[in-house]
């Protein structure tokens, strides 16, 4: 085509204004401040297409800003010029780690047909963009027609007016938002002609300079993990004319602007994580899951990792990593049976009602590994979504945006010394790590559940100090579950629980060591009856069973809350967000503890500063016990307090009965013989007299 270095302002003003209006759906486009003022149109009423322009972007988190009450959707007008006041207000909500790509679509052309019979401004766009926008070939303006004064001889391009371009982009975003955005994001991500800006910094800032005049398409192509919805793609014409009503109250249409500053918005949000446990119903557990549970050794536990998948929209927001890391304490053995279920309703998810799951994954959608730390004895279970799993999660139509993902598996409580008894409990820490398309940026969520087990510390004695304690025998009956305790003896008088039975003949007979010591390890917090079945010869067994109650340790555990831009307890913005945004955590009474407990912190592990609320652990309520209704002392076990209930059981000598042997027998025999003899003599004398 023939280059024209001068373009009349009349048509350009109209197209520039119209094109900048397209930014209002997704951005606040403002002029970048420069040291030299632009020449007024009166002095220079043409575009100098040899001059270079620039595009500057400030990226802000509108979700947080609206939550803090500093911004309302639609309250600011896009004019194409810089707005220092807006930048000051929005600076706490800058989003770091966003990539914008831009494509110079083509030249600005004056269409003059048949000697001025029709004159208008048109824009050149490539074939692929025409197809994505759904523009018809028949509606294009022909710049190669015979009667066009300035023909364009480029191939593979089309020419449309600003109205056509605006309408096509608007209709595509309104009618098929995700499809259109994904297509444009993919187009600029893969196009050899597009350019990528540097990732936005801590101020949300990025730019591109030394740009030729022409029409530009700008698309958000990568986002950090907290962004749930990218801004709508928009078109910018360089240069464009200023608009009236901006922050410096200039009259519109008075000068050309070669430097555009844009303020695009993002909606943000994060996934959730909840770690839950219950005794398997086969082991006497109920249907409810919780953060803490009391268990017996030998029990099989059902574990859940419940995560609400974050909102996924266009391709730039697709998840690229979704990984759970679950650390089991040394007292737990993983059964290698992970499955994943996906639910549309939270209630079904937290109760893991698999019959209501939308999908159940067993193999291809995730990988799992379980590595045991030889030093600590802990097992680290890692569950990572595979490319296939991520593809299913991200699918624009059949995907699982905002669904609940439940990772579930079982673990067994060890019947040995590795199970921690008492208040320390057996902790199980879970971490969720996720990324989106801006690979450098990730975030984590943490949660914990704890299972508590206890024991009996029995001391068997005799009133005269002479009995053999090893000849005593006991059974232990769980009154709550109506089962007898089954255990194995590891050493003299030391037992580890292995199971339960409802058959008395299968109940374990517990025998103390000769020293009188009896340790029963690994019972849950419940009501028990300890019955003495037998004792050493010459001693009385207990008349009745001993009633033992163990009240388990409890505590409130609330998962961490992922950071949101501006969530910093020390700032006004952070305090405002805590009141209006789901960014803090509450205790069991519903009181926000983000600040009162001092658990809110700044996260900067990813090279940025984002407020984050740590996992909250409430005050622990220690275990307690009673014996026959009277408070009982509990002893420690390996440094963990309130581990075993202390009992001292005394057997007394039996009462002495009259002897049935020895001198007593002889005396009775002699006396009897004498009596018989005397009777015989007397009888004989009576007969003689007669």
UniProtKB/TrEMBL annotation:
Residues 162-267 form the Gram-positive pilin subunit D1 N-terminal domain. The chain crosses the membrane at residues 664-683. Residues 651-688 form the Gram-positive cocci surface proteins LPxTG domain. Pfam families: Gram_pos_anchor, GramPos_pilinD1, SpaA. Residues 1-29 form the signal peptide. Keywords: Cell wall, Membrane, Peptidoglycan-anchor, Secreted, Signal, Transmembrane, Transmembrane helix. Residues 456-556 form the SpaA-like prealbumin fold domain. InterPro entries: Fim_isopep_form_D2_dom, FM1-like, GramPos_pilinD1_N, Ig-like_fold, LPXTG_anchor, SpaA_PFL_dom_1. Gene3D superfamilies: 2.60.40.740, Immunoglobulins (2.60.40.10). This is Gram positive anchor. The lineage of its organism: Bacteria, Bacillati, Bacillota, Clostridia, Lachnospirales.
